[in-house]
Design a protein that fits this description.
Layout: E1 5-9, H1 18-29, E2 33-36, H2 43-52, E3 57-62, H3 67-70, E4 78-83, H4 87-96, E5 100-102, H5 108-132
Parallel strand pairs: 1-2, 1-3, 3-4, 4-5
């Protein structure tokens, strides 16, 4: 099975990246290939990084309150994320296609388990398709 590749990003002007770094580290420690884009990324930069890195998913960390705008901008790839997001907005984000939202206090083991369960099969089948042709 090929490894799972995830882009972790901080869209917009929010400069609080501790959560994104903690999640990136937990995923790396679990064997996931993580590409961390750093602070102040535009949605276009994040998507370009995901395409360039052939990522299986994008994980966004949004603490600025701009989650309805920032999550909306990514499509055609599994998008998950976290931040201070009201429950009512989580339901709307899921309707928009966001695969999973983790709120403050979520255990890193829960995030790792979700990434493995959701992306593990996708990564192995995607790798097989790429090497077969």
């Amino acid at each position: 099975m090929s490894s799972i590749r995830v882009v972790i990003a901080k869209p917009g002007l929010d400069g609080h990246d501790r959560g994104a770094k903690v999640v990136a580290r937990a995923l790396r420690d679990a064997g996931v290939e993580v590409i961390y884009t750093g602070l102040h990324q535009t949605p276009e930069q994040i998507v370009a990084a995901a395409l360039q890195e052939d990522a299986d998913a994008i994980g966004l960390s949004v603490l600025s309150g701009a989650h309805m705008t920032q999550f909306r901008r990514a499509s055609d790839i599994v998008v998950f994320g976290g931040g201070i997001i009201p429950d009512a907005d989580i339901a709307e984000l899921e309707q928009m296609g966001v695969a999973k939202i983790f709120t403050p206090g979520a255990a890193t083991t829960a995030i790792v388990d979700w990434v493995r369960a959701t992306l593990g099969q996708r990564a192995s089948s995607g790798h097989e398709e790429k090497t077969a042709g």
